[in-house]
Design a protein that fits this description.
Blueprint lengths: L1 H98 L1
Keywords: Coiled coil
């Protein structure tokens, strides 16, 4: 009888140990999943930041090119305006000379 009780006690202890190990395993597995999710989020966040950085660079380049075009157009308009004023002055002078 004593041996049976000892065997049952050892069996129960082993069962508890097994349950403890299974619980620890589930906790470790959950921690692993959480860590992998955090790594994935960090990677996606970093990847997103890299994408946003590249987009920002593209936008900056586009802005510079547009600004350069605007400066060129402004220079052309100023040159055309000067030319038009000079043409008007010459026309006035030619008209004044023709009337005298």
């Amino acid at each position: 009888m004593k041996q049976q009780e000892d065997a049952v006690r050892r069996s129960l202890e082993k069962q508890r140990e097994l349950e403890d190990v299974e619980r620890e395993f589930r906790q470790l597995k959950q921690q692993q999943e959480n860590l992998l999710a955090q790594i994935g989020n960090a990677w996606r966040g970093n990847h997103s930041e890299n994408k946003l950085g590249a987009i920002a660079l593209d936008l900056t380049q586009e802005q510079r090119m547009t600004q350069k075009k605007l400066y060129n157009l402004d220079d052309q308009l100023q040159a055309e305006s000067k030319q038009a004023k000079a043409d008007v002055e010459r026309a006035k002078e030619a008209k004044a000379d023709a009337t005298h």
